[in-house]
Amino acid sequence: MYFSLIRLHRNASPNDIGALRFDGYQLHKIVWGFFSDGPDRKRDFLYRQETTNGQPTFYTISERRPNDPSGLWAINEETVKPYTPKLARGERLAFKLRANPVELSKEERTANEIESWHKNREERGIKQKEPTKKRMRHDVVMEAKRSMEYKKLPNDQRPHLATLIQKVGLAWLKEKENEFGFFVSDNTENPTVRVDGYRQHRLFKGKGMQPVAFSTLEFNGILTVADPETFVEKCLFRGVGPAKAFGCGLMLVRRI
After folding, report:
1. pTM
2. What is the DSSP string of 132-200?
3. How do beta strands 251-255 and 92-99 pair?
4. How would DSSP label each residue in 85-108?
5. Per residue in 158-211, pLDDT tens?
6. CATH class of 92-104+139-255
7. Where in the chain are all domains bearing CATH 3.30.70.1200?
8. DSSP 151
9. Any idea which fold 2-82 has?
10. Coil, strand or helix at 115
């Protein structure tokens, strides 16, 4: 695996930089361009985008070295390093994570959806059967607000939005502990993880196309490694949560 810190090349001209669009779906296309070598290439990298002085910086973890034929981005031996973390059980790490926190549910299909489901199977030559329930992803913040009927609550009974985000975000992260080989403290009196930066995103791929919609939370704090092999292979190398194609899931860590 490789860890890369990708910035615009110092020698990039203002005209070249001005021709780039550093927003929404265009940022997604830029970082995919570092790793794509054909239309059938599947994603084998994670990334996190930051903005410095109005220009993007990308942190990436990838199976292959990034490449930039345009020459606009500084990709070289100084910015691309082998990534082989050596960690021990019980080791404490500072971490940063931008994630798309969702919870899954299964719901019955409507009559129109059942008809479309059967038609799709027929067109694909697949044997017909009773339709399965559809899998739905729900934004954990919005779902928490919906379940408590947040808007209907009197102002003096509503939890502060920052408090709600901290609570549901931390609960979501703790649900990932066993799967990803770490644990974090849930001590509300002395929290070791801060959850904030809730945002809803809509990325427009092109005219007439449905936008890509997802939400993000920012996690910053201290974790403890419970299972080093699982933590490295599943958490650091494969990422946490969905929307990885749009800059979510990469966990940055450092020893403390």
Report:
1. 0.85
2. PPEEEEEEHHHHHHHHTTGGGS-GGGSPPHHHHHHHHHHHHHHHTHHHHTEE----SSS-SEEEEEEEE
3. antiparallel
4. ----TT-EEEEEEEE--EEEEEEP
5. 899 999 999 999 999 999 999 999 999 988 788 899 999 999 998 887 777 788
6. alpha beta
7. 2-82
8. G
9. Alpha-Beta Plaits (3.30.70)
10. helix
